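Exam prep: given the inputs below (a chain plus adenosine monophosphate), describe the expected output before reading on.
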Amino acid sequence: MNADCIFCRIVAGTMPATRVYEDADTLAFMDIGPIVKGHTLVIPREHFDPLTQTPAPVLAKLMAVVQKIAQAQMTGLRADGVNVLQANGTAAGQVVPHLHFHVIPRFRADGHHWNWAAKKYECPEEMQQVAAALRAVL
Ligand code: AMP
Ligand code: ZN
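Solution:
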């Protein structure tokens, strides 16, 4: 429990949230600023952050609930699709520093666009160099 963390306060029940699912390790609640109505956040009860410092067994349990919420959005909200999103660090757009997965129901006519601007490597060698930098630490 981190007293300064709003999601820890939601877990503790000292900050209100509209819960949709909870178990011993995990909590899912409605995002107050939905990208699309039904947008849900899935968090571990314990304070972890970021993704890279979260134990793999915690992530495994969390991902099972992400799947459960995605399924509920498909069946309960009749979503046509689901986006799963997770941010680490302010450079990645993270605002709340308690690990959370966004599970966002998508509808064919929901009007949301990610503005996914695909770019290009300067040359094939540049991509090979970037891949080599990753392989070197894996
Ligand atoms: P991120 O940018 O990935 O850190 O996302 C943080 C998310 O938390 C945003 O989508 C906010 O709308 C949401 N949020 C912040 N405060 C609350 C709260 N008290 N209850 C529910 N969602 C919240
Ligand atoms: Zn926290």
